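Quick start: read one record
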Amino acid sequence: MREQERGGGAGREGRREGGREARGALPPQSPEEQARAICLRLLTGMPRTRRQLADALEKRGIPEEVSQEVLSRYEEVGLIDDAAFAGAWVESRHRGRGLARRALAQELRTKGVHATLVQEALEQLDSEQEEETARELVERKLRSTRGLERDKRIRRLAGMLARKGYPEGMALRVVRRALETEDVDDADAPGYPGS
């Protein structure tokens, strides 16, 4: 009696097996239904580009014409929007990781965003904003390079900016200014040996 009250025992096992049998009795899904299910599952986690979804459908063996039909329908209803994806990507990756336009453009191209949409998304960032972000990145990293020779510091800091897609000229200019500012601040600090 207690076994049945707790919902355990043979009753639970019977339900599990019955559930498996019931699932096994479902008719197989059509390629369209499979494609819709795959796309919805992928879009639930995070926004995706049309190409990312097309690649996922291809990997799962969905016919090309079915894939294109489902993806076109999802674009019509707004579930796939490469322009919005690109804009959000640029905003997020620039603010979060400090990536420059060049690195952002490369990431978007690898995700299959069309070149004109990439360009439009990158127009959000102007060169002043990009340089300000570069300055902030250098300021954060500056302290960890103290004690190194000046040339080595320049190489490390400029290299960090280059890996994030900043142009060489801008990177060197920002790093040199930061080092000059640091030298002036150190000279003005009380207890500096030159005072």
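The chain has a mean pLDDT of 85.
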